[in-house]
Amino acid sequence: MTGTQPIAVVGTGTGVGKTVITAGLTQMLRDAGHEARAIKPAQTGHPPDDDAGFVAAACDDPDAATCPRFLEPALAPRVAADVADEPLAYERIREACEREIEATPVPIVEGIGGLRVPLAGDREVIDLVADLEAAAVVVTRSGLGTLNHTALSIDALEARGIDIRGIVVNEYAGETLAERTNPDELERMTGYSVETVPPLANGDDGETTPREFAAGVSDALSPALYDRLPVETPR
Predict the structure, then answer these.
(1) Which tens digit of pLDDT belongs to each residue from 201-232?
(2) Could you say which of 36, 99, 130, 214 would form a disulfide bridge with 27 (CB–CB 3.0 to 4.6 Å)?
(3) In angstroms, what is the C-alpha Rg of the chain?
(4) Is 207 annotated as a binding residue?
(5) Strand locations in 51-130, DSSP E?
(6) How many CA atoms does the CB half-sphere of 92 hold within 13 Å?
(7) Each residue of 14-68: pLDDT tens digit?
(8) 19 labelled as ligand-binding?
(9) Domain extent listing, the chain
(10) If DSSP codes are grouped into helix, strand and coil, which group holds residue 137?
């Protein structure tokens, strides 16, 4: 594949906050003058789940994100397609992503669950990241257990020759000893820089808007991460 190197926001598992981090990165890059757009290869659990819709709302622009395929069962894409008795071909997913990447100056591909989630046929999410020649930003949890999950994910990416640009520890509050020690330990274990993003929900009802989530992520991420991303300074 040729063209702009995409950024892949991948996770150590489901529910770690890939969509919120994707929204923040997309908005941060757009604020810096880049034509950034998020690409969700496939969305399961739809409705109500709509990660591309969340990113678009966060950026206040319907063109800020796209998703070529939706499946109703809230399962891994390959399993969801089987349960729904719908065709799902890996080549179609990959080609759809490649078209969007070629048309987007700064494409951001959001993963689906963890790296080993079955995508289509015998291919997994990590296969798509490798085939798209993306640079990965790894999103992980902050608490106990994240060292193992993150290190295994890093090992899997490195084994495929995937370029890793950093690790983001999401919902980092520093309330436990494990949380407070995990960022430094992850840097020691993996050799990659670690960013932290605090919990961003407002109040007991958690009624934080997508734009507020994106702004919080953008504020939390350091200029050093921005400098490591495969983007050129806009003219």
Answers:
(1) 875 665 899 999 999 999 999 999 999 999 98
(2) 214
(3) 17
(4) no
(5) 65-66, 106-114, 118-120, 123-124
(6) 9
(7) 999 999 999 999 999 999 999 999 999 999 999 999 999 999 999 999 999 999 9
(8) yes
(9) 7-228
(10) strand
| 133 labelled binding-site residue | no
Q: Is the Cβ–Cβ distance between 46 and 63 less than 8 Å?
A: no
Residue 123, strand partner residues: 120
User: Is the pLDDT at 197 greater than 60, yes or no?
Assistant: yes
Residue with tokens 């951001």: 108
Q: Which amino acid is it at 206?
A: G
- SS3 assignment, position 196: strand
Dig out the tokens for 132 from the structure: 């798209």
Whole-model pTM: value is 0.96
Is 66 among the annotated ligand-binding positions? no
The phi and psi torsions of 123 (rounded to 5 degrees) equal: -95, 150
> Annotated active-site positions, please?
40
**CATH class as words, domain 7-228:** alpha beta
